Amino acid sequence: MRACGSGFCHWECGTFPWERMDLPDPTDLVTLPKHILDIWVIVLIILATILVMTALVLCPATAVIIYRVRTHPTRNGIV
């Protein structure tokens, strides 16, 4: 069937909006379009950045908490 690209049903030429010619073949799952790969790269970079920033905030904070618990005056018998 021919697709005229208007998106409307044409009974004369036999085109229907659900039979578009510009859609990729769903049976070919090996090759993904380039823009989908670009989106995944951006998502992975954002997730890695969030993970690194969280570690940079939580590791020093955890070290400070451990230090304060270990050197607390009541624990050493000062108070």
Oligomeric state of this protein:
single chain
The coarse overall form would be rod-shaped
Order of helices and strands: H
Count of DSSP strands = 0
Radius of gyration: 30 Å
- The overall pLDDT, averaged over residues, is 75
Largest sheet: none
Number of helices: 1
The structural class is mainly alpha
Poorly predicted runs: none
Q: Note the beta-strand portion.
A: under 5%
Distance from N terminus to C terminus (CA atoms, Å) equals 89 Å
* Helix content class: 40-55%
Write a concise keyword list for the protein shown above.
1 helix, rod-shaped, 79 residues, 47% helix, mainly alpha
SSE inventory with pairings:
Blueprint: H1 34-70
Account of the 3D structure:
This protein is mostly helical and 79 residues long. It has 1 helix and no strands. The protein is rod-shaped. The mean pLDDT is 75.
In short:
With 79 residues, this protein is mainly alpha-helical. Helix content is 47%, strand content 0%.
